[in-house]
Amino acid sequence: MLFAKLLIAASMAGAQAPVLMAWDQDLAFDYDRENYQQTLTDIVLKSYSMVQAEMGWGLQRPLRIQVYAPAHYEKQFGAAAAATRGAHYRQGAIYVNGGRRLDDRFAGVMIHELTHAFIDYRGTGHQIPIWLNEGFAERLYWKREGFDTFAPNQVMSLQAARRQGTLTPLPTSGVVKLDYLQFYAAALFVEMKVGKDKLLAVMKRALEGEPFERALDREVRWTMSDLEREFLAWIDQQRL
């Protein structure tokens, strides 16, 4: 059974669409449900505000956020999804796998998934390559954690992948292995190389209907081959 509450858009600075939250009642004891609702609301509001500030635009269509108990998530989306996903975004809704502990990890998951929602603010998020869609979501996740560069273990993993030849090509769409570190590294590289404003300008053009590679060329004067070549050289320069 789900308990739902409508978050009024006006409570979120610059928001243009409502957010509807729902959560499984057995995620909290009877006596703690009001506190659970308030804590969840606070996390969503703070995460929403951060993502909106980073991206510079608001949502233009309603967003649903549903927090499931693990058994309910598995029943809804299958055992494979339950075993591999902490949450996922799809067509104007965020589905969270578990939420008994509304902790720092939960807040990070919310940042990641809300980033997908903001990228898909016009329903055109599929026009952003998967490496950038996931990579920018990871970028904001790690930024919330206080990281503007890589941790030493991430550098080691990236340089190992570089030696193995698996960092490129960057996947654009379809069924691919979700290498979140690779995607994060590529998104961070572009931001560091050309600036966040240019990166967002490329994304905005693509979301408004321009092919991604044309948007990349118009804003940055790069082809994807240029981007990948520069990305590999940048990884080579990273130090522990």
Notes on the structure:
With 240 residues, this protein is an alpha/beta fold. It has 2 domains: 2-123, Zincin-like (2-Layer Sandwich); 126-237. It contains 10 helices and 5 strands. It has helices at residues 33-55, 70-77, 79-84, 104-119, 130-144, 152-164, 180-194, 196-207, 212-220, 224-237; strands at residues 2-7, 19-24, 63-68, 87-90, 93-97. Strands 1-2-3-5-4 form a 5-stranded mixed beta sheet. The model has no long low-confidence stretch (mean pLDDT 91).
Strand and helix map with partners:
Elements: E1 2-7, E2 19-24, H1 33-55, E3 63-68, H2 70-77, H3 79-84, E4 87-90, E5 93-97, H4 104-119, H5 130-144, H6 152-164, H7 180-194, H8 196-207, H9 212-220, H10 224-237
Parallel strand pairs: 2-3, 3-5
Antiparallel strand pairs: 1-2, 4-5
Helix pairs in contact: 1-4, 4-5, 5-7, 7-8, 7-10, 8-9
* Global morphology: globular
Question: Can you list the strand order of the major beta sheet?
Answer: 1-2-3-5-4
Radius of gyration: 19 Å
CATH-defined topology of the largest domain: Zincin-like
* Number of alpha- plus pi-helical segments: 10
List how many beta strands DSSP finds.
Answer: 5
Mean pLDDT: 91
Which structural class matches the secondary elements? Answer: alpha/beta
Helical residues, percent: 40-55%
Element string (H = helix, E = strand) = EEHEHHEEHHHHHHH
Number of domains: 2
Largest sheet descriptor: 5 strands, mixed
Q: End-to-end span in angstroms?
A: 49 Å
Low-confidence stretches: none
What oligomeric state do these chains adopt? single chain
- Under the CATH scheme, the architecture of the largest domain is 2-Layer Sandwich
CATH class of the largest domain: Alpha Beta
Strand content: 5-15%
